[in-house]
Design brief:
Layout: E1 13-17, E2 20-23, E3 26-28, E4 32-35, E5 40-42, H1 53-57, E6 66-70, H2 84-88, E7 92-96, H3 98-110, E8 115-119
Parallel strand pairs: 6-7, 6-8
Antiparallel strand pairs: 1-2, 2-3, 4-5, 4-8
InterPro entries: MTH938-like_sf, NDUFAF3/AAMDC
Protein name: Mth938-like domain-containing protein
Pfam families: DUF498
Length: 128
């Protein structure tokens, strides 16, 4: 009986906290897109209120089977019209808070799925 997980070559989200995530142990303090096939780029949004359809349309050309949207410290759903390019390609979109999105991405990437995590990293408010 095998008790050890298979080794995955996918990027891994190794930690997260208020205002940051770590990808393969590298701390990132801005919104980011990370993919199981090596995709990684800054995502140009600092707050949920900054999002629009162009933020999601850019994922359509990447060919992922699933986009996991980490909506920040709490769950907030994107407007359906923002997701039209992904729905047209039958690309799945799941929304959850950023911490849950990190965990879910790691599980699916470890299974060999082509998945993207679009992680909204919000700057913590003073006193948080």
């Amino acid at each position: 009986m095998k008790l050890q997980p298979d080794k995955s070559d996918a990027q891994t989200i190794t930690a997260h906290g208020p205002g940051w995530v770590a990808i393969n142990n590298e701390k990132v303090e801005h919104s980011v897109v990370v993919g199981s096939r090596g995709e990684r780029f800054a995502w140009d949004c600092e707050r949920f209120e900054d999002l629009n359809s162009s933020h999601f349309a850019q994922f359509a050309s990447l060919g992922a089977e699933l986009v996991i949207f980490g909506s920040g410290v709490r769950i907030r759903f994107p407007r359906p019209q923002w997701l039209q390019p992904l729905m047209a390609l039958r690309t799945g979109v799941e929304t959850m808070d950023t911490a849950a999105a990190c965990r879910t991405y790691n599980i699916l990437a470890g299974e060999g799925r082509h998945v993207l995590a679009a992680l909204l990293i919000e700057t913590p408010a003073a006193g948080d």
